[in-house]
Design goal:
252 residues; alpha/beta; Rossmann fold; 7-stranded parallel β-sheet; 42% helix; globular
């Protein structure tokens, strides 16, 4: 489905990104892992013994870095078919409860993440305009669609950070804004809002979470990749400006 498509995945060595990269390769595409840490990017590349994976260094909060990454990929492959905005930069204080979040930390985390998605979207769109086509998929969250269900976190150290909710909800609207702004430019922009992804969370949390879903509960990373492949493929040619929710019914 993705034969010979060159797809840049920011945060491509993370929990989700690694699965995205593997699935792109499985679908005969070329996955370019965009990471700020070259060592972990190379490790994921080495896991794909059949090839189809390249790496680039990219800091999504740096215009010079983003431009350099675009130039590097274009020089190597002569094109870029798509960008998957998946990186999640944050500072050391990220993840605190609402009353413990300082103004400076809130602004910094929103700036790094949402600002980074803005920057990559802007610069890749400029490239896509010159190229004549392009595709952007932003990775958002159910907590960009509905308010957090705080009760499922009771008895754990976990919460939904206020920055996360602000970032992910804004990202969905950024997706729609950009899709409309690029009308008639042959560039698609969509987002995927993910439900909770299993990552060895406390059992009490997993059980409470499942009560709000329809079948499975927490998702595995592989449960999301099919939707991504669809949006990256020619099958979704006229799907544009949409936010596709993959959450086993959590938001209902």
């Amino acid at each position: 489905m993705l034969k010979d498509k060159v797809i840049v995945v920011t945060g491509g060595a993370g929990l989700l990104g690694r699965e995205f990269v593997n699935e792109i390769v499985h679908q005969n595409g070329i996955a370019v892992i965009g990471e700020i840490n070259d060592e972990i990017a190379q490790k994921v590349k080495n896991e794909n013994v059949e090839g189809g994976v390249e790496t680039i260094n990219i800091d999504i909060t740096s215009e010079d870095s983003v431009q350099s990454a675009i130039s590097e990929v274009h020089k190597k492959f002569g094109k870029i078919d798509a960008l998957v905005n998946n990186a999640y930069p944050r500072n050391k204080n990220y993840g605190k409860h609402f009353f413990d979040v300082t103004y400076d930390d809130f602004v910094q985390n929103v700036g790094m993440n949402l600002g980074g998605y803005f920057l990559t979207s802007q610069k890749f769109s400029e490239f896509f305009l010159k190229q004549g086509y392009g595709n952007i998929v932003n990775i958002s969250s159910i907590y960009g669609v509905v308010a957090p269900r705080f009760e499922i976190y009771e008895g754990t150290h976990m919460t939904t950070p206020v920055e996360y909710a602000a970032i992910k909800s804004a990202l969905i609207h950024l997706t729609k804004y950009l899709a409309k702004y690029l009308k008639n430019k042959n560039i698609k922009v969509n987002s995927i809002s993910l439900g909770g992804i299993f990552d060895n969370q406390p059992i009490s949390f997993i059980e409470r979470y499942r009560k709000h879903t329809l079948n499975k509960g927490m998702l595995n990373v592989s449960d999301v990749s099919g939707t991504l492949v669809y949006l990256l493929s020619d099958m979704s040619e006229y799907v544009n400006g949409q936010n596709i929710i993959v959450d086993d019914g959590f938001v209902l």
